[in-house]
Each structure stands twice: as C-alpha cells, then as structure tokens.
C-alpha cells in the first residue's frame, strides 16, 4: 500500500496541530516520524488511522482519494494502529483480548493462528496470562499481535519502543523489516533519532505542526546539524570538583535468578551523595532483572547485602531478599521505574489520584503544587492517559522528589523523551546532585555519561565498574 497525504491540516480554536502536511508513505518500507512533544505526530497518525477527522487536505490510498469516517473504516481499508497505551480488557487473558477484537471467541484454527503470531513476536508471552498481570512491553505485544492477525497493508506504531529495552527493540525492528519486505507500509513514531536512522527507510520530522525535514534516506538525518530545533541545546557539562563525597548506598554479593529472565550474578555497586552513578548495558536483558531486584520487585533467587548510609554515615544493612519498595521509601529512596505508565502510575487514574499516593488528605491541593513544580499545563481532574511520556515522567519525578529523598533511582530515564525533554531532565538531575542527593541511573541510554561520577556496565549478568572519576 502507498499512503499519500496532500496539504493535510488540523485546526482547533486556539491551536493549529497540523499545517499543510504533504508526505507519501510507500509500501515495503519503514517510515519514521520524529518531532518534539506537540509537534503534531500523534495528530497525524490519529487522522491516518481514522480516529480523528482533518480540517483540510486529501488522503490517497494507492492513488485513489479516500477519507475515513471512523477507525473501523480505516481498518476496513487495511490501516491498523498500535497505540503506545493500548486499551485492553484488564481481567481477560492475552488470547481473549485478541479474540475479542476478531469477534470470534471459539475456533481452534483461529486460536492456533494467534498463538503462532504471539510466539513470533515474543516467545516468552503466555497466551493465558491476564492483562492486569503484564508490564507495558507485553501489553504492547498483545496489541501488536491483535493488529497483525488481520494482515494489515499499513501498520502504524505509536512510540513502540517506549516500553521495550534495547534487546526487545532490536527484535521488534527485525520483525518490522521482515513485514516491510513482504510489502507492508510501516509508519513508526519515535523520539529517537538514532533509532530512526538505524532502522527506518525514510525519516519525516515535524515541528509545531509543520513538515520541518524529510529524508529519503534515513541515515542522512544523523548528518544534518539542523535536525533539531534550538530547544535541543547541549547540556552544560558538570565539572568534577575533586570533593570526596560520602557513600549513600552499597550492594555486595548481589545476585538474582528469576525463572524466566536472565540472571544477575554477584554484583557490587556503590553510590555516593552528590554524584550520579550510571548502570549501562549493551543490549543485555539482565538490566531489567537488576532494576526489579534493586527496587524490591523481584525475589526469585535473590541474595546478597544492601547497605544504606545516612548523611551522618550511620549504616543500615539488610539482606537483599528483605528489600521491598516500602523499605526503600522509609529509608529515603525515591524510585522512578522504567515502566512509568503501569508501575509508577496507571492510565485509568486521574492526575490527582496519581500524584497523591503518598498523601491521605488535601489530594487536589497537593496535585496542584506538584503540577506547578513540574511546569505542566494540566488540571488535577484530567486523566493520566492525556499525558505525553515527557509530561508523565516530570509529574512522577515531582511526586517522588516531594518526599525529600536522599537517594533517587531512575530507570531508563531518557527513553521516550524528545530532545527538549531530555535536556530538561538532565538539568533536573544535575540540580539533585547540587543538592547532595545520590542518583542512580539504571539504563543510561542517551544520557551524557560525562555527567556521571561512576559508570557500571552490566553484561551477561555481570556488573563491572567501567569508569570512576577520581578525587583530586
């Protein structure tokens, strides 16, 4: 399928979301759409998938002008979209959710086809597992399988890598390339310039509702210095003052062996007040194991010792197996997990409900304070599902920092953020360091490691110190 739009626009009373966009998305290719928050990406794919009507312009499928009266109409013409936060029935299983979309609830042939599709996407997914027990990655896989079962001619993916680690993203793009080779037109929204250049055939950049750049060869986008806007200025590099900081956290002999995930073996790590400690991983899926274990969310085969040190260096040591989210909070630790949508919040909550989990009274007043602190234009009554990835992360960070923690653990903090949001987050992290907080980054992809005092590398489940700034 070739999908072409001409002079497409979407105007609201106080804002123009799209302004005269003309693009052709050819078949047998992967097309990446990039742009900062508010650039018009989501508006564009909502129009292409039939869930939003344009204010003007034309849409052509294989040279024939068309229009969509609904999402169902777009699907009937072969266009399917997989949302970043798919709407799924929480109390139904993966298989039942997919069957729900087909309207067929029995039939061995259909069931076997779905199971085969799921296995191709993620061999570890259990068809009979209820959605409410799944993380963001497998919710995405469920939605993707539900779309692919119809053999679409055009597949639209809204920030598909938001919940995926590096290894999972590589597997996803391998699948997408296979589908493109079979003739499918694939459109991917992403914030990652490097991801688009490495995996897409073309790159389209939107800026404030207008077509900013188009690259017929995706790799050309990396060489263009004018790719980003002025908002994406470089981060001011932190200098090493040479001050010897006090230790905040130490883990030793830290091992975790989950049943269905790669293990972490005999890890050791130290984090200091007034410093950033990063844990990187070159495509190692054991990074998620390390995150869950350190954040008290994984108990299988967990051993070792975790020691917390107050600012006065009073030590509290516990067995790793006794580590829980509650213990972390009581000992001055704030956690921002990699799954910010379903672990740190939930799309079904209001903003006030999400922000007031640590407050039993005056929830709305607390929410207003945190919204102001995060500098976001939203009301407490609005749904969390209305937030972009960057807005959600800023609110979660504001909520966690409101507890005045000594240690802040941030997991995959840069993932899913546009360039301006990444810059803003880096500046916020540096302000934490200036306030003598200890910061641990688990999954530091796209984070400038020159800002870190210690960098650990996790590879094949083994954690090694690869860089440390020396005092003096």
From TrEMBL:
InterPro entries: AAA+_ATPase (IPR003593), ABC_carbohydrate_import_ATPase (IPR050107), ABC_transporter-like_ATP-bd (IPR003439), ABC_transporter-like_CS (IPR017871), P-loop_NTPase (IPR027417). The keyword Phosphoprotein does not apply. Keywords: ATP-binding, Nucleotide-binding, Repeat, Transport. SUPFAM superfamilies: P-loop containing nucleoside triphosphate hydrolases (SSF52540). The keyword Transferase does not apply. GO terms for molecular function: ATP binding; ATP hydrolysis activity. Gene3D superfamilies: P-loop containing nucleotide triphosphate hydrolases. Residues 3-233 form the ABC transporter domain. It comes from the Bacteria. PANTHER family: CARBOHYDRATE TRANSPORT ATP-BINDING PROTEIN MG119-RELATED (PTHR43790), GALACTOFURANOSE TRANSPORTER ATP-BINDING PROTEIN YTFR (PTHR43790:SF9). This is ATP-binding cassette domain-containing protein. It comes from Treponema peruense. The lineage of its organism: Bacteria, Pseudomonadati, Spirochaetota, Spirochaetia, Spirochaetales.
């Amino acid at each position: 399928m070739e999908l072409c739009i001409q002079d497409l626009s979407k105007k609201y009373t106080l804002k123009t979301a799209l302004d005269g966009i003309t693009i052709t998305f050819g078949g047998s290719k992967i097309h990446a759409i990039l742009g900062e928050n508010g650039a018009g990406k989501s508006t564009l794919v909502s129009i292409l998938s039939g869930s939003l009507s344009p204010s003007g312009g034309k849409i052509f499928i294989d040279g024939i002008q068309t229009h969509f009266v609904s999402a169902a109409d777009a699907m009937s013409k072969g266009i399917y979209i997989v949302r970043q936060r798919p709407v799924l029935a929480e109390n139904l299983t993966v298989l039942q959710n997919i069957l729900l979309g087909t309207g067929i609830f029995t039939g061995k042939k259909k069931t076997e086809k779905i199971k085969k599709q799921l296995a191709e996407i993620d061999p570890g997914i259990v068809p009979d597992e209820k959605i409410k027990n799944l993380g963001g990655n497998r919710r995405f896989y469920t939605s993707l399988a539900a779309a692919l079962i119809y053999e679409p001619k055009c597949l639209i993916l809204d920030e598909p890598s938001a919940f995926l680690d590096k290894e999972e993203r590589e597997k996803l793009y391998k699948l997408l390339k296979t589908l493109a080779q079979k003739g499918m037109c694939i459109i991917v929204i992403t914030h990652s310039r490097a991801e688009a250049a490495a995996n897409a055939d073309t790159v389209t950049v939107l800026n404030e509702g207008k077509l900013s750049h188009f690259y017929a060869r995706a790799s050309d986008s990396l060489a263009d210095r004018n790719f980003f806007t002025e908002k994406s200025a470089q981060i001011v590099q932190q200098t090493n003052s040479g001050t010897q900081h006090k230790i905040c956290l130490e883990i030793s002999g830290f091992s975790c062996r989950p049943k269905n995930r790669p293990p972490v073996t005999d890890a050791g790590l130290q984090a200091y007040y007034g410093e950033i400690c990063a844990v990187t991983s070159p495509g190692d899926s054991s990074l998620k194991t390390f995150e869950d274990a350190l954040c008290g969310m994984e108990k299988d085969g967990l051993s070792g010792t975790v020691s917390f040190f107050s600012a006065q260096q009073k030590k509290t040591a516990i067995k790793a197996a006794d580590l829980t989210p509650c213990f972390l909070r009581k000992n001055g630790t704030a956690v921002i997990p990699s799954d910010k949508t379903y672990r740190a919040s939930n799309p079904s909550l209001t903003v006030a409900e999400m922000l007031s989990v640590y407050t039993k009274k005056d929830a709305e007043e607390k929410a207003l304070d945190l919204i102001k602190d995060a500098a976001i234009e939203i009301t407490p009554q609005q749904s969390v599902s209305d937030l972009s990835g960057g807005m959600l992360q800023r609110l979660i960070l504001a909520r966690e920092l409101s507890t005045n923690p000594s240690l802040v653990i941030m997991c995959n903090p840069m993932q899913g953020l546009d360039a301006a949001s990444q810059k803003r987050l880096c500046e916020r992290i540096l302000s934490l360091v200036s306030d003598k907080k200890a910061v641990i980054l688990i999954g530091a992809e796209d984070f400038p490691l020159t800002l870190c005092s210690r960098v650990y590398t996790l590879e094949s489940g083994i954690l090694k110190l690869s860089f440390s700034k020396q005092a003096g």
